[in-house]
Design brief:
This protein is of the alpha/beta class. The chain folds into 3 domains: 1-37, no CATH class; 39-113, Transcription elongation factor, GreA/GreB, N-terminal domain (Helix Hairpins), CATH 1.10.287; 127-191, Transcription elongation factor, GreA/GreB, C-terminal domain (Chitinase A, domain 3, Roll). The chain contains 4 helices and 9 strands; from the N terminus they run E-E-H-E-H-H-E-E-E-E-H-E-E. A 5-stranded mixed sheet has the order 7-6-5-9-8. Helix 2 runs antiparallel to helix 3 (83-108). It starts with a strand and ends with a strand.
């Protein structure tokens, strides 16, 4: 039998059938803390507010609804064959995981102000107009944090391969980026 620890809660000893679940919980928490240092997540003020709003919604709306669903399902009798009860308990586990993830993300978030005015280099928050040298297409992306990324709407993460390649570059620079579809090359046309 192996022992796994959940930070600040208790020692848990389980048989082999449950080790992977506990290990996943442990590893998720361990990865968040990474020893004594916490990795900061760049985010805009608006992005952080969206995360806080989502956390509040989950805690004040979704979680109470789920508790009521569990209570209602318990009233239907035998829990061993009660599909509604098992579905509600599974939803409860998902909600707790999402709430914990949001709390950890908010705790690690570092609000970076998006600079306004002329820009000579690409930094967090800036928008870059690029020319794809292979497809002869222009695309425009704003560099934001990983939780604000939405490539289809022109927002990419500074931690993405393209985002990392763009940081610090100037108008006229060319970059090569390894993507799942192969290496792509871009020229930077404009920074705003």
């Amino acid at each position: 039998m192996e022992r796994w620890y959940e930070t600040g809660i208790s020692t848990v000893s389980l048989g082999k059938g449950h080790q992977s679940n506990i290990r996943g919980i442990y590893n998720t928490k361990h990865e968040v803390l990474k020893g004594n240092r916490m990795e900061r997540i760049p985010i805009t003020r608006e992005g952080l507010e969206k995360l806080r709003t989502e956390l509040n919604r989950l805690e004040s709306v979704e979680k109470p609804q789920n508790i009521r669903a569990i209570e209602e399902a318990r009233g239907h009798g035998d829990l061993s064959e009660n599909a509604e009860y098992h579905a509600a308990k599974e939803r409860q586990s998902f909600l707790e995981g999402k709430i914990n993830e949001l709390k950890a993300t908010i705790g690690k978030s570092e609000v970076l102000e998006v600079e306004s005015g002329p820009a000579d280099r690409i930094v967090f928050g800036r928008t870059a107009r690029l020319f794809n040298l292979q497809t002869d297409e222009e695309i425009t992306y704003q560099l934001l944090g990983p939780y604000e990324s939405d490539p289809e709407n022109g927002r990419i993460s500074v931690t993405s391969p393209l985002g990392q390649a763009l940081i610090g570059k100037e108008v006229g620079d060319e970059i090569s980026v390894r993507t799942p579809g192969g290496v792509e090359e871009f020229e930077i046309l404009e920074i705003r």
